[in-house]
Design goal:
Strand order of the largest sheet: 8-5-7-10-11
Number of domains: 1
Largest sheet: 5 strands, mixed
Number of helices: 7
Oligomer: single chain
Length: 306
Amino acid sequence: MRVIETMCQRFTNSSPDSGACEANDRPVSKGFTLVELLVVLAIIGILASLLLPSLGRAKSKAYQTVCKNNLGQLTKAWLMYVDDNHGTLPPNGSRKTEFDQTSTPGSWMVGNAKVDIHTTGLEAGVLWPYVNSAGVYRCPADKATVLDSPRLPRNRSYSMSLWLSPDIVSGTAADLFSENDRRLLTSFSTIERHGTSLIWVFIDEHPVSLDDGVFIIPSGSTNYPFVGQGRWWASFPGTLHGNAANLSFADGHVDTYRWRHLRTPTRYTGGPTPTMNEADQADLETLKRGLPSDLPEDDAAFKPLN
């Protein structure tokens, strides 16, 4: 302090007793004016408006990446089961139990995502030994909760195509597979004949329709009488990734499909829901082209969207 006073006196030509330099030793306190505070707040608001959308998009992209990784792991587990069981596909069975459609013991998973409060159904599935992680069965963007438990997240977001090893009793048209159909659709060789990169296996299903582990979708093939030229949804594809869903394929790769129609279902009857317009029908046709019974001669007809 004495050094500072001496320097002040030297530069101001003041005497030590004048007191001219004493005030300079103490910091001067000066607050922001109201206008300055408003300007700062306005700048913060502008920066937030610029940054938050970018952060939101980054978060959504991260969720989508994790979802695709999950589906990739499930499909690898599916393929390992096929390899260990001489080309037989993992069972995809479901039964009506009271008011709920439930995947049955011996299937790729067991239970109903809407009501299951534990992961025991996932652990009872034939794919669990190859996965061994409950988190793989759930998309991080899925905020749906268990029925009557609004604070409990569901433990599953994904379903398997009806057309792969089906064994369904639901009281709907999905029950009308013949025994010959079932035998045909339980063999990996059926998929290999069409091309493993064209047949989709798992899909992230819309939370409104997700219940058992079966994604019910009509085929356009005349070989299957219950479907005809279907113009209806029975299960809804997911929209959690910017009106898009992730699908995995029998060769192990995963693609994202962005839908033409903005689908916002709020209730699920369990029965057929007619497509709403041509865009909705086009989305349905996109998925149908990835079924074992529906592949066109031109393999390029089923392309991922970039």
